[in-house]
Write a structure and sequence with these properties.
By secondary structure, the protein is an alpha/beta fold. The protein has helices at residues 4-15, 34-38, 66-69, 86-97, 104-111, 134-140, 144-156, 178-185, 214-225, and strands at 78-83, 125-129, 164-166, 189-191, 202-210, 232-238.
Length: 239
């Protein structure tokens, strides 16, 4: 039996046919036209093994960039799908600041490519979204990292587990360097009461953008301090 939702979706597509989220060209399915999807700044080798920052010169093997070389993170690696440029940056900005929760759909069409990265090894996994403070959730209406984690969970089959809680509302970090970001975030997260990790599962933290790694590092530090294994991370984009 056809549901009312399916009927409504079909009618909406007839009245408002889908368009590419980047160039507005009419498309038949998905959120991107082929040209815009192929033109996205995907991150490929050579790139930093720890944070995914691309490197312009030819390098063989694993290497770390200057951002990571002299810094000991509490997470093993971050895997980003694309660079935060153009349409990707606009979609993330709309998701975070303009309540455009539907932007998760075109972003997920891009970020699901991280599962082709060899750093995302095939083993039992839980996806843990980076938490927002409750005041920020009420302001935005949702936690964008949780929306992303749940969408990734549907693609991968990995369960989503909200293990962390943000206990301190921090000021925006847009213009902070790494040192100020670390100071701003220190002690901002705690483990939720009664949360346990399934046996032999690894943790992948999920967030929207990797800039300096300070947020993921503080979340990871909280998890490791409480006896959990060193996590990995997935982000849509690398700034």
């Amino acid at each position: 039996m056809i549901s009312l939702r399916q009927i409504a979706t079909t009618l909406a597509d007839l009245i408002f046919p889908p368009h590419c989220c980047a160039c507005s060209k009419p498309i038949e399915i998905g959120s991107w036209c082929d040209d815009c999807l192929l033109a996205l700044p995907y991150i490929k080798k050579p790139r930093c093994h720890q944070c995914s920052l691309p490197f312009v010169e030819a390098i063989t093997g694993n290497f770390t960039c200057s951002n990571c070389h002299d810094h000991e993170f509490h997470f093993r690696c971050n895997v980003s799908a694309v660079m935060s440029r153009g349409a990707i940056r606009d979609l993330i900005h709309g998701l975070k600041y303009n309540r455009k929760s539907w932007n998760v759909t075109p972003l997920m069409q891009v970020v699901k490519t991280v599962f082709d990265d060899e750093r995302i090894i095939d083993k039992p996994t839980v996806l843990v979204p980076v938490p927002l403070h409750s005041l920020r959730v009420r302001e935005r209406g949702y936690n964008q990292a949780e929306l992303l984690a749940r969408a990734l969970g549907r693609v991968s089959g990995f369960p989503v587990l909200n293990m962390l809680r943000r206990i301190r509302s921090t000021t925006t970090q847009t213009h902070f360097d790494r040192a100020r970001r670390l100071k701003n975030l220190h002690g901002a997260f705690t483990l939720k009461t009664g949360v346990t990790l399934p046996d032999k599962h690894r943790i992948i933290l999920v967030d929207d953008v990797f800039t300096t790694g300070a947020t993921l590092d503080e979340c990871s530090r909280t998890l490791v301090r409480d006896g959990f294994p060193t996590p990995d991370a997935i982000t849509i984009a690398r700034a």
